[in-house]
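tool=predict chain=A
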Amino acid sequence: MIRIKHLTLSRGGRALLDGAEAAIAPGERIALVGPNGSGKSTLLGALVGDVPADRGEIDMPPMRTVRLEQIVPGGKQPAWQFVEAADHELIGARAAAAAADRSGDGMRIAEAHDRLLHAGDADARARTKELLAGLGFSEAQSELSVDALSGGWRMRLNLARALFVPSDLLLLDEPTNHLDLDAIVWFERWLLRYPGTVIAVSHDRDFLDRIAQATLSIESGRLVRYAGGYSAFESMRALRLSQALKQQAQQKARVERLEMFINRFRAQATKARQVQSRIKALEKIAIVAPARLERGVDFELPPVEDAPDPLIVADGLQAGYADVPVLSGVRLTVGRGARIGLLGRNGAGKSTLIRTLVGELAPIAGTCQRARALRIGYFAQHGVDDLRPDDTPLSYFQRLAPDARESALRDELGRFGFPDQHALRPIGPMSGGEKARLVLASIVRTRPHLLVLDEPTNHLDAATRDALTDALADFEGALLLVSHDRYLLRASVDQFVLVDGGRADAFDGDLDDYLAWLQKGGGTQRAHAGPGAGGTGGTGGTDGAHGSRGAGGAASARASSAAGGGAGAPPRIDRREERRLEAQRRQQLNLRLKPLDDALRKIEQRLPQIERRLADIDAEMNNPLLYRDNQRAIELSRERAALVRERDDHETRWLELGEARERLQQAADDPEHVASR
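tool=predict ok
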């Protein structure tokens, strides 16, 4: 069991986690989510001991922990050898065996080869080949030196190394960024068979839905646990935020009611106890922080005007480099409003096809005709590399549009998450996601008829991906999309072209059909490496009582003339009659007050019960372990809402009854007032 206890982690003087707590059971697969900069990678660093805690601790038993490296590797080693070199125990066992063999000492040789056996040397080469094949490496690529591979393939080698080393805990930071769709599908199957614990940071929601059993979300410096993958987390978090918003509104209404009572009755001695009780209740109310669903930006794609039709027509197209064809016989028409997704493994030719369609590459043979007035917005896979580090977003836009007003450029930048001073920051230190947003903003400003996007989400966080997905769904123009983001593909395109085996043909089916085709061995055959390639091991209410006017009357006095008295003699008061009338008034008043007092007493007995139960529910809902059981969380949420409604109804009714009682009391004490009514 991994236990995170009161953990505080800081970076650059800013607290990322503050008193965070969580528990992870052995063998669990956990998705770790949160906005960019919230502390996900920092927490992974703390789990391997690279980042010291400011406060708190991480309590975990001894376990073999492997973290996916994020640095692009290099070297002259063959790719397969570079993967095996990650297992220091295996390499040490091989060196010990070689030294023992040279020594000629039989006992030493026996012990060294026993160690070699336990280190997994017997099947190491086979496991390496299976891992590399699963991640898309051909036999020829696995023999190439690390330096001879592109950056994306080198990052795949890092993943292969992480999977090769025997481990009990696997920490994965954006493991799918450099994988094509079929490699991701293979990787998911591998993880589902891995017996150890997995903590994965990823912006690929489909990947997390497939592999995660629970989700840890970093929210305001705390770790909140939800059962299930990303979609379940999103639903449950939306429920919690909705509940928080309702709680804010309820809290505001309650504060207003309490303040109204205090202000109304503060000066009345008979209400002193009730007033003090309400003042204490007001002081105990904890202010609920504003609840909001954080989102990166909301992209705004411009309307499409005067689009030609068709936009692009390719006929018998042969595309490639230096007269070496990658694709042949391509026939493709991109019409106005078309929404096409390109499928195929990395290296199959998707980017080559796109570059030829947009005019970056000349066809080797065949034709590729683009409409005369066509405006294309092209996001290249490595387009962010062309940005100048010393530029700012504003100066970059000013170079692209020297005649545009600065205010207009700032407005455009603001819509893509670069408001105010953010537009004046140097581009160089920006994150990959920020640079990708900037490039997207630059191509959108041309008001394109056709958007051609080659892996646009590689560096975007989940919230920004969602914003882009929503924008593309509303985009009126045509779309040509290459992406391994299944959620984006499903939401944005309605037809597919499969690039495979040197051809680009219409794919008869949807994305699920393509995934099924891959699992059946479609396209390039992949060996299915398993975990053995590195792993071991009720609304209450009170019926109202209507107030009525008091029945008391003025005491009658009888004036009589004393025997022999004159007409101006003072009146004589009948004290006995006065007492009788006063007792009658008190009796009548008590009869009217009794139902009010009974109702008030019931409310005052019930309110503390409600408050105690609400406190118990809040304590349970603040426990991250609750969200392993979504049904229990929903039940508690519903019970809490009902109790809050009951409390609010009781407090409102308490005020109404108190005011009615006050009116009756005043009427009994003021006979002239009664007479006037």
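Residues 180 and 346 are 6 Å apart (CA to CA). The longest strand covers residues 14-24.
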